[in-house]
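Please review this one:
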Amino acid sequence: MTKFMISFPSGAMQVSEEELPAVSKAAHSVIREAQEAGVYVFGGGVNESAGTVLVSGDGTIRQGTYPETRLMDGGFTVLDLPTRDAALEWAAKIATVCRCAQEVREFQYDPEA
């Protein structure tokens, strides 16, 4: 099994305030489906009001991120799946209920994780 992150940036989800409860309910139903299937690892939304902090090897702490890093916001789900095709199927389910395209990224295998 391989872990996949399925995600989208905040700006991609274009739904009205009136639609948000229905979208949220539908998204949670897909998450419950993944939990029941035993493939859900974790997920959620990035807390955009909490600033990013960069901690260097010498312990120095500063606000911000690597200069080459783009903004990380929005929502994500990590699933443990047998194939990339399975990840694409779950991404399609999430894209449908969230009403926006999803990025799929594969984590490298780590035997100790």
The radius of gyration is 16 Å. The chain has a mean pLDDT of 92.
